[in-house]
Input
Amino acid sequence: MGEILKPEWVPGPQFKIRPPVRGLGALERPRLENALTASADSHRLTLVAAPAGYGKSTFLGDWVRKCALPCAWLSLDRFDTQPGRLFHGVVGAIQSAASRLPLPGNDALLTLDQGLAHDRAASYDLLLGALEHLTEPIVLVIDDVQLAGPGLGNGIVGVLAASAPPSLRLVLSGRGHTSIQLERFRYGEGLGELHAAELAFTREEVAEFACSLGQDAAIDAGALWAMTAGWPVAVHASLVSLAQSRNVPVTTPSATPTHIPLAGYVAEEILDQLEPPLAEFILRATTSDWLSRRLAVELFGRPQGGVLLEECLRNGLFIAEHDYRGGESLYRWQSLFAAQCRRILQRRDPLLAERLHRVAARYYQDADVVECVDQAVHGRAPRQAVVSLGAHWLEFLLGNDAETLELLCRDLPAPWSEDPEVLMIRAVCRVLAGDAAAASELTERALARTFVLDSSRRRQLDGYRALFEPLPAGGRLDLHASQAEDDRASSDAANDGRSAVCSTGLFLLAQAEFRLHRRGDLATALLEAARGAGSPDQLEETEVRSQADLALAFAATGDLVSADEYATQVLGRGDALARTSKERIAPAWLARGIACYWRDDMAAARMCLAKAQRLGGEHFPSGPLSGIYRVLVDCAAGDLDQLADSCAALASSHGRGLYAVSWDALHSVTVAKAAEAQGDLAGALAIVQPLGAGGHGALADTLLAELLRRGGDIETAQHCAESVTDRRNAYIDICLSLTEALAACRGGDTATAHERLEHAVQRAEPASVLRPFADRRDELADLLVQHAVWGTAHESFIAALMARDAQGEGGLRTQSYWNLTEREREVLAYMRSIMTAAEIAEALYISVNTVKTHERSIYRKLGAGSRRDALKTAAKRGIV
Output
């Protein structure tokens, strides 16, 4: 070994082989320390990779000091690109750790020279041989591996990663992609990895960190976490900024910084550490938070933009692939990082920053109204924003809400905020919100400024005005007038091209009716008119969307058969829609989910509701209704884990959109239903106590009446049921009738109880509305048997209900229950009615002889000689 030694080698500085000391106020992170311990135990190589500011060195230093295994530490610097210096540092770090905790077999390691001989392979072999003599593992943590440059993979670190014995556990920490080939680890022996997503602060860690810096515990940690995405250095800068702005600890929960001073940090610690072309690309490409490959090239101004985008992704530089739109991948910058980059470019070259905003506005003009308006305003090109709004505002409203559109118009700078077309768009938004007075005022202002429009925009403005004439007082629409306007517009479509405007406009007015929780029949009529306006080849997407919402309107008004029919049509045509239009069929899935719920098919209902939520996304206009039915489905299924998730989703969507007060009441009743499903009836009643005795909308009052009845407040429940004067909705009428039947039965009024039950059965049978009966299964069981004897025109349906009861609740079964087969239990349930064997056979789709065979088997097993005796014995044994 003597021929490769270098006695003249000067020992390196000790700070390079010692982990950094945790600074004052730094947060201990046991969550990450446990994750790294598990990774080091199970993998020979672990990679910790994240951009600057994620606390990698601090966290690793804490872990090294607490680790049960001997740990060696090596911090790299820009001079470690030299293979000899890097080898010297690695050997010195390992020897330092081995000398502090002597291990069996470490003699060869301690006597190894730290110098790298001319024959590098011989030096590497000696180190590997010395490590093989270790009988216990040792961990080598190398920090800032990116400073070793592209030669890292070919030097000693690459050799250790590829060939070190299991006694050496290697932890590499750096800011991005390393030159060491890692894929064979990922798909071979395994690779431990911690990235920015794991290293980011959680909400709880943000709160804990704020307290460690002297902030009050009441600080809104959730808002701070959302604004910074958990980026530790940004959290620290935010808290410091808050404290400095007040010069006192923060005590108000709503306190959040209006400006985070991170531009200098991003410039020095991130951009200045990158190759100049990559840094320039980032400054240009962060003009927009959302980025496609084509936009990346346009912003960079050179074809290499796509390659540099891939490099950003590979190095985890605050960007991630997020979604697909029109078959093109979309990427999203971390919002706070992008904002700092925009601030840097604005300081360095404000003219370039404005020009790039205009480039982005042109790209988004026909793709995203919101992004186009934002980019155009920042690029001092408000006319471009007005052009995009004028061309696409109707399309925007189909998938979004009027409030967002109105804010876009209001935020335009003067004089563009007073553009007649912009004012008319705002008037339409007020119409959809039911604010007729404001709509009229905006329309007058728009007409007073039409002189600034050219002839083409003037015709377009007149079309909007004719279609969206402000609603009368109270926000109600004259249906006949609207249909007349629709007919006139349809007949003129070939001449003035307004059929699309007319169809879309009627659709939006129908949505306003539905969102404001008014009469469903008016919304249905409007949607049918919208669906018929214009030619299908011109209006396919509008027609499909109208059909989807029509299916939802039918489901909401109780016509489940029509809801199924229209939903089936929409879903059959959904494959023909573009990828970006798929969310427009979400109402059809919601309609089908509602129908499945009332038919008591909970598995199908859950699937349809999940599909509706997934397609509709965060801004699904009917999202609150979808969330309410998700809770109802989970209550019915008794799945408490799913119920907790659906309640959380309902809470997150509550208050979004333009909804009337009845939605608040429906939300409260749904939360109470969830509490009841969890066994807390008293808590459920406390939740609905402020709602009184109804007057909150049909569905809310229906659920409320039944909840009050179960809680024993019969009088208030009856008043609540009576408050629903319009019972054209089938499932609403069924639920209320059953509530009234059970209340009457409890009060001893059997005649009323049977009359109300017969009415409920009559409404339920045509569309197989079973959920109201299943929801009251225990209390209805005896009443159904009595009703079959009392006399009914719906014997088959009553018998089917009793058969479902017999199969539904395991708690009703006794030890002798298993003696009857599944088919025999069905036949026994039908035997409780006055149906003949032939009628039972028809109901079960089996032969009369088969029914008689099952009856004889039932008599034999129960020791009965007749149907009456069999039913008495079954009742005594708890079988029925």
The longest strand covers residues 168-174. The beta strands are 45-49, 71-75, 138-143, 168-174, 192-194, 290-292, 319-325, 328-333. The chain has a mean pLDDT of 78. The first helix runs from residue 30 to 42.
